Every structure is written in C-alpha cells, then in structure tokens.
Amino acid sequence: MDKRRLIGMALVLISMILSLTNILSVKITGGFLGVNVESSLLTILTFVFFFVGIFILGSLDEKVSNWVKAAAIAGTIGLVGLPAITSIKEKRSSIPEKNVEIENTVKVISPYSTTQGRFERTYRWDKVLDEIEGRYELPRGILKGLAMRESYGDPLRLNKGNDGGAGLFMFQPRTAKAYGLKVHGNSDRSSADTTHGAELKDLVEFYNHDYGKLAEIDERFDIKKSAEAAAKYLREDYTRYGSWDKALSAYNQGKPAPNASETKHVKAVNEYTEYYNQRDKIDHNRSSQNVGKKVNSKKKTREKRVRR
Asked: Considering Cα of 38, then 91, then 89, then 155, what sign does the dihedral take?
C-alpha cells in the first residue's frame, strides 16, 4: 500500500478516536457556562487530523477527489459539530430559570479556580445577593466573598471528595434542613458523608447539570434559597459571637476558632469580599458613566431639534 495512503488513513483514524473521546468527555457544570479547555483542544486536533488525512487521500486519485471533498465536509460536520452541539445543549441546560436574576455585564471566561474566575461566576448573582445582604443587614459583599470561597460561584458545585456538601454555599444535609432547605436523600449528617456525596454526584450527572430540575430536588442548589439560608446562618452567629470574623469561622467549622481572624478560611473570605466590592464598584461606575453619556446624547439631540 502507498505510504501516503497509509498516513492519510492513519490521520483519519486518529481523528475519529479523538472525536469519540471528545464526545464522551464533554462535561460542563451549571456554574461554568462555557466549553471547557480540554474539549476545545480535542475539537481542534480532531479537525486538523481529519482534514489533513482527507486531503492526502484525496490527492492520490483525481477521479474521486470530489467525492473525498464531500466526505471531508460531511465528516468535519460530524466529527467537530457533534461535540460542539453536545456542549451547547449542556450549556443551555445549565442556565438558571427566569426567577433568578442574572447579571450579564461580566462574562465567564477566566479559569475556574482563579480569583477572577470566581468573581465572574459569582457576579452573575449580584442582584440576588445584594438584596439578601441588605435584608439581613450583612456587611456589603460578605455573601459574595463566601460564595467565591465555598463554591467558586458555581451553584451546582459539589464539595471536594464528595463529602456531602453542595451548592453555592456548601451546606451539609443537617445544616441545610435546619435552615429550611429541602435536601435530596436521607442523610442527616452535618459532617462528611461520602455515601450522600456519591448520591449527589449521580443525581447531578443523571439530570445533566440541569439547574432548574436540581434546584427543585435539592434546594442547596437553589441560588436564592441557599443564599437566604447562608444569610440567616451568618446573622445568627454574628448575634451569638459579636464578630463577623467569628461568624465566618463558625460557618466553616461549627464554632469559631480562637484566632478566627487569622484562619485560612476567614482570611480568604475577607480577601474575596474586598476584591468583589472593588470590582463591583468599578463596574457600577462604568455603567453609570455609560448611562450618563446616553442621557447627555439624548439631551443634545432634543436641544438640536428645539433650535431647528
């Protein structure tokens, strides 16, 4: 067999394997609204190998070159399009329902675990969290900083090691129930429960990260209800201990650490809160300036009409 033909066939075969891997590996969580990096890279490699392979095979015989070109087009659509369509479907299914106000001025484009990525995901719930912070008289941005710390701003996130914690504020079953949240399954633990964690993982995968369905089944995934529960929790602990740092420490470990302000958790929440508030202020100022420009533009237009 001709060496070029072997190379062409090998490239097409590799592209098919990559495509299958891509289809099986595409997975987008409810908080991470966008195609993951691994999926995008596989799609590019699939396209390159497939196109080059078909080009080599097509150049071997002019009589069938048109058929090869047609196959290249159809194959490219199938190999590259299917994973993309799968991604889009999952992306759409992960968008919260209409009863959750989404802030669209910041797009989720940064890496998942970075401070910027945490901010972008959490900022989508800015209006909801603002309203709840105000209602419970919490310090500005504390719920946002806590969400950035606990779940990276992802309302469908499960705790590391599948220990049973879930949602924007990582409530364990017993604590969630104590604050009026409906919880999937029979667990009543306030500490690690890996059996319950495995159940939650299966649940999220079964419903394909569909926010609407999961928020109904387990209200820890519900942005508004879980945020209100977290606000109640913090307000009660502040009343009990007289310090927001102690309240944050108690939220993390049941009761405040002796040196609450120096603990890793409290420092992280405070740093995220400060970062969020600074970014929020910048974005609000920018929005106000844009509104001001539009108002001035309309005013000038009216003045011109009056002069005429």
From this structure: positive
Question: Would you tell me how many other CB atoms lie within 10 Å of the CB of residue 255?
Answer: 12
Give dist(CA 219, CA 235) in Å, integer: 20
Q: What is the mean pLDDT of residues 223-252?
A: 97
List, in sequence order, every beta strand (DSSP E) within the chain: none
Beta-bridge partners for 158:
166
Residue 36 has pLDDT above 50, yes or no: no
Contact 117, 150 (CB under 8 A): no
Burial of 167 (0-12, 13-18, 19+ CB in 10 A): buried
In this predicted model, what pLDDT tens digit does every residue of 126-153 receive, in sequence order?
Answer: 999 999 999 999 999 999 999 999 999 9
Q: Rounded to whole angstroms, how far apart are CA atoms 223 and 105?
A: 19
What gap in Å lies between CA 28 and CA 162, rounded to an integer? 18
The answer to whether 144 and 115 have CB atoms below 8 angstroms apart is no
Q: Is the pLDDT of residue 289 over 80?
A: no
Place of tokens 């910027």: 116
Residue 166, strand partner residues: 158, 171
Torsional sign, CA 138, 139, 141, 145: negative
Query: What is the per-residue burial (b if ≥16 Cβ within 10 Å, else e) of 75-113?
Result: bbeebbebbbebbeebeebbebeeebbebeebebebebe
Classify residue 260 by its DSSP letter: G
CA angle 180, 183, 186 (to 5 degrees): 120
Query: In this predicted structure, what is the pLDDT of residue 76?
Result: 54
Encoded tokens for 305: 């009409």
Nearest one of 166, 130, 146, 160 to 30, comparing CA atoms: 166
Q: Please give the single-letter amino acid code of residue 50.
A: F
